[in-house]
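Re: the request from the purification team.
They wanted to know what the chain is likely to look like in 3D before they choose a buffer screen. I agreed to run a prediction and write the result into the notebook, where they can find it.
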Amino acid sequence: MGSQGPDQGYVYKLIPLFDDQLHLGGVAHDDAMAGCVGVALKRSAFYGRAPVVHDLRMALTVFGFLDADAPADLVTGREEWFAGIGHGHHYGQRRELVDRVPVSALATTPAALEATYRRDWTANLAAAD
């Protein structure tokens, strides 16, 4: 099942760095952060280290939360994907969201991931089962 990275809680210190850059649309802040924190921790654990700002930036980029002009189909999709996942009883839904982002997308650089997002945002996500 993999291994968690060290000092995972540090990711919560990084969230306020992005608050003034977020474009959440119909997604609640707590829900967006719960999902993106999971993706950021997936990336940091892949590298076997504590989370850094780039992990969270990449997670936010995948779902278009840093894009004021995010594609309409992405905005619509994320409203469904993130609905309520900030609540603890939606852990399964949060895991499904994190699993939608393949390690291959997270193993790139932030610039490469953003370029892929700009070209075709769906390329950073795996098909849902």
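For the purification team: The radius of gyration is 13 Å.
Please add any questions underneath this entry.
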